[in-house]
Amino acid sequence: MIVRDRPSALRLFLLLRGSVLPTILPSLTLNMFVATLVTISHGDLFRLKITLTPIPFSLIGLALAIFLGFRNNAAYDRYWEARKLWGELVHRSRSLARQCQTLIALPEDLPVRTDLQDVRTRIVHRAIAFAYALKHQLRDTSTADAEAELRPHLLQSELEQVSSKYNRPDFLLLRMGKDLQACVQAGRIDPCLAATVDDTLSAMAAAAAACERIKGTPIPFSYTLLLHRTAYLYCFLLPFGLVDSIGFMTPFVVGIVAYTFFGLDALGDEIEEPFGTEANDLPLDAICRTIEINMRESLGETNLPQPLTPVNYCLS
Amino acid sequence: MIVRDRPSALRLFLLLRGSVLPTILPSLTLNMFVATLVTISHGDLFRLKITLTPIPFSLIGLALAIFLGFRNNAAYDRYWEARKLWGELVHRSRSLARQCQTLIALPEDLPVRTDLQDVRTRIVHRAIAFAYALKHQLRDTSTADAEAELRPHLLQSELEQVSSKYNRPDFLLLRMGKDLQACVQAGRIDPCLAATVDDTLSAMAAAAAACERIKGTPIPFSYTLLLHRTAYLYCFLLPFGLVDSIGFMTPFVVGIVAYTFFGLDALGDEIEEPFGTEANDLPLDAICRTIEINMRESLGETNLPQPLTPVNYCLS
Amino acid sequence: MIVRDRPSALRLFLLLRGSVLPTILPSLTLNMFVATLVTISHGDLFRLKITLTPIPFSLIGLALAIFLGFRNNAAYDRYWEARKLWGELVHRSRSLARQCQTLIALPEDLPVRTDLQDVRTRIVHRAIAFAYALKHQLRDTSTADAEAELRPHLLQSELEQVSSKYNRPDFLLLRMGKDLQACVQAGRIDPCLAATVDDTLSAMAAAAAACERIKGTPIPFSYTLLLHRTAYLYCFLLPFGLVDSIGFMTPFVVGIVAYTFFGLDALGDEIEEPFGTEANDLPLDAICRTIEINMRESLGETNLPQPLTPVNYCLS
Amino acid sequence: MIVRDRPSALRLFLLLRGSVLPTILPSLTLNMFVATLVTISHGDLFRLKITLTPIPFSLIGLALAIFLGFRNNAAYDRYWEARKLWGELVHRSRSLARQCQTLIALPEDLPVRTDLQDVRTRIVHRAIAFAYALKHQLRDTSTADAEAELRPHLLQSELEQVSSKYNRPDFLLLRMGKDLQACVQAGRIDPCLAATVDDTLSAMAAAAAACERIKGTPIPFSYTLLLHRTAYLYCFLLPFGLVDSIGFMTPFVVGIVAYTFFGLDALGDEIEEPFGTEANDLPLDAICRTIEINMRESLGETNLPQPLTPVNYCLS
Amino acid sequence: MIVRDRPSALRLFLLLRGSVLPTILPSLTLNMFVATLVTISHGDLFRLKITLTPIPFSLIGLALAIFLGFRNNAAYDRYWEARKLWGELVHRSRSLARQCQTLIALPEDLPVRTDLQDVRTRIVHRAIAFAYALKHQLRDTSTADAEAELRPHLLQSELEQVSSKYNRPDFLLLRMGKDLQACVQAGRIDPCLAATVDDTLSAMAAAAAACERIKGTPIPFSYTLLLHRTAYLYCFLLPFGLVDSIGFMTPFVVGIVAYTFFGLDALGDEIEEPFGTEANDLPLDAICRTIEINMRESLGETNLPQPLTPVNYCLS
Would the CB atoms of A209 and B105 count as touching at under 8 Å? Predict the structure, then answer.
């Protein structure tokens, strides 16, 4: 995610970081090159004058506007829903930490412990591991990368089990549920209050399942296809429609139009899958770190990691 | 559902899989043929010059844009809501599995079993059967097909009962509720926690009812009718309006306009009913398989089926 | 509600059932008649040439598009929210049936009954009556019609009471609540589980109140007024603007424009109040029947009525 | 709120009740007067020909359309959300009445009373008072007016207390909560069921707080400012752009354009603050009356007031 | 937040307070200056006639409209969601106050106290502190400023602890949870009712996390970039397209167009981050004050602070 203040008017045109310009440069260059050829030949194609005027482009532009507006909204909705789900995860993790420490009674006959042997600490650290495991699942990282981030928060035996699972976040919830069950059976938490904690676990499962949904179900491919085709046809035919009225300015105008259409299209592509690691994707690393800090602070730990900060205006 | 990366600019125009082109080809061909005739006759119809200019098309285009944009949004909302409901089902199934295993105590005086004789295993497998039964209900498949997928997850007696029911998913929920009741009465689960499990069952019922709603209530037919009529009139009259200004390019431009309008319309038709088996419909088979894998993994089963993968870029 | 597959391109233009054409025919005919007069007089009104060009229509069209798009979305949102509320009712009724049969224990010292003397059967049949009573309230039918459909599902004494009430669905919920209270006091259901059943009753009350809201609060009348006025002015002035450029085609083009504008407007009128009995209204009869079938099947009854099917493509 | 059927095409143009015409008449008249002057002078301003064409108005119209559409949607969303909140209040009041009568047991050793001395009756009447108190708060009426409507539903001592409070609805909820507490402590309601009643109280508090939010936070003033300025500039410059092409029809066309733009704007102003007493505002009196009827009917009272009916097509 | 009635038509053009004019003045002046130069040179740039017509601006305007409309909606959605979250906080605080005083029993063997030594008073005042702490977190104020507002509502020991925390609002919730736990263990509140109070705490945590989300995740920077670039190119090229048709009116028309486009853009910037202290940002001070008044009134305190009122039409 790009994090920066709005640049001044001039710098605005010089920025590349966060711009979609690099992505669309090949198409854009080709389009302007074609427009230049058309301008030079005064709209003739192999000596045949292509009799286009701006009128057809107004008509096609109508449909194109519907496509672009629709896809843009759909892509941003996915992005923002994904961000909401991770915000939900932040909140549910914090609430789980609070509930573990206020609803589960201390064991009466056991010494109080603060490491993973204590059920309350164990659940809280598993919630941190849950966030990391979900991030790795959504980003399709290697098992080794995932284990490296999970290791500090799980018992060794649990870490081995979790690595072999198809759905790791879900397994961690199951383990938390089992600890909760043990507390209920030991009388350390009233069933009514345990039901509240279980609701929190279900809400975490819901957020994870919704993230999987966004990852697994793109905007229907036919929309993308129809939109790309129309946008390409529009931009590559445009020089023929403009050359008679605006002459040598044709390549320039075509360039601006193509920049906005291709740019909006490419931006939609990037935003549509918000869990990746591109510049405009969600900063899952930073959110996971926030969860870790919050959870460990609530346990009273003091050697907390620092929040992640943007590197070159980009928060990963 | 089509699952593929965005093709390169060139291949974009050659793809047919996932394109709506085959669906709209007859109308499109007819339209371009009419446009060609109009071009050859210079806009005369039986020697009568049809005095149309592009202006009426801008005016009608306005209403058409409202129609197309509205219907497109409505159709996609149905598609995406349907996907959300199945995501909800994934989450609720997982939560039910977790709850069965952590909130229902082991029977004290009975040997622990892991087959369908054990209430916890039975409920979890019934949840798998619930997803399959809902899929078959939404797709109007034959009873034999449905039974084939339900059989491994139900007791033989239950399978026979379920086949005779008008609403099979609902019957399975009732059966789960009865098992839950037995656990409450046997003291294996506290009523407060049983209320939580019952909430999960209600949420599954809610998702099923909402899927039925989408299946059973199309976008009002009058919209479709008004939209089709306007789009057809627009595209078949368009050549008369364009031929005087763009001459021999008329059929080509009409083709592009018609491709986008008919295409958007056909795509809406396909997306509007998301539970079918067309290329752009929801991959219910794959989602059901995911549920089965998740549920059985949570039971500790190890001979899990593989997730479904796209065949020829299409996930069923 | 019209239920039919999309007709072929040709039949599309011949259909009247479900079309808004009959509704708008008077205005449309008058408009085309005026356009014909204008064409014959070459735009003169009492020898005064009306100096209109297409330009003002583009400008006014802008505001009109905002109006039409807004009202159309608002009307469809009402329609779809109404449908969702009845889907909610379907789901809540089913869940209530499941809860009655799984959360309320059998009376220990009484013989099991399956008629309305049994509290569980009684609540389930009252839920059927609730749906019918709500339908009649929303459609403002006569008390006799309502009683005819409620009679099989209520005790005679209750039927008499319900008929005298201002808000019949609410009274039925109160009766269900009283039966629930009796079960709590008799120890047949744990209070925690009774709270869950009470939630279901509240959700049914919520759906009913929301239906009343849609019925009782139309889209602000000023919108309708402003929209109608603008649309009429636009369509009746349009011939003066077009006659100079498209000549004898004027009445035809005006007809198409007016068809879409008046049609969209009339469709909005119909959809906006979704609880009526017009062709595009919600099939409340069919939904109530579905509820009755589901509820009675869950009780194990076997002499179930058939689901309603469309008559002449129309489901009531 | 205006309640009337759609008038016939002719009467449509004669209606003033519910129309925004009176509100915008001054601006509209001035605008048409200016347009007439411009027409007479053929677009000269102090002998200087103002060289405007329709083109700039298409370009500015684009931004104006964005503004108008946005503000219109935002204003209607506020209106409709406000209506939903009062619908929520209707439902929660009814559910509270049901819960009071079915979840709170009769006192065993006390005679049953039906006046405000009985806790169940008292809570139900306080819920009526809650609706009235909220209405008066949202409409900023005098304390005397509020007291007149609250008096029949509260004990005298309570009425005095409530008048001195900053937030009267909230105080009534606190009082209901205290009665609930007394019932819990007297063992007349199980804590699990009391939690459900408390949820209902919280939902009423939520609806009240949301109404305050809508009342207290207008659409950002800068939007209104930017929109008004653009709309005024547009309409007052328009005659210069049109006079060359449409001549003496200029004032007429300007009048139609200004009617729609100013009208949409004025309508937004009215709808945006839905709790007032203008013609298009919400019928809070009628809704409060509905709540009173529902609540008292549920108590078995028979001398119920009549529902409010529209006066001169207007429901207050 | 600007709070004022709609000014009269004339004053509308003279207002600066709340207008975005000061923000965009530099760009606007430069743009009009360029337009004046272009007008004087009749569209020549260094003796080269720039052959632009209005047509390209219609085409680019299409994409620009999509951008502006999209960004505007997204920015306002953020603003309004933020306002809803603070409304949620108002409601949850009030409900927490009610629950503390009605669900937690008085200690039987202790004297009733009304200061922070009493758990019920303590929780209520911590809820006030929660709102203030969240405000300071969202506005990134100094620790000293935050402490000054928190001090009256917390015990001295707690104030010191809270200042050292990374997430202060969350710490306060944890403290409230611990007091709740003590009440459960002392038997002063039934676990079922404590679960309800815990839900309220979770809802406050949810609102806080959602506010952090809005603060931390801007609209993707690439949108802003693409929009700014297109808007600047459009406005600075516009004079070349207009000068041939409207002559000396060019700078004036360009000024109006640029005012609306730059103004809408600048307004989006301001609204997008609603937690700041600019004129159009949310009045967090006033909302916090409302919470404080409500909470203390519910405790029966009488020396309540006054609600904040707008200063120079601006509520901070």
Answer: no
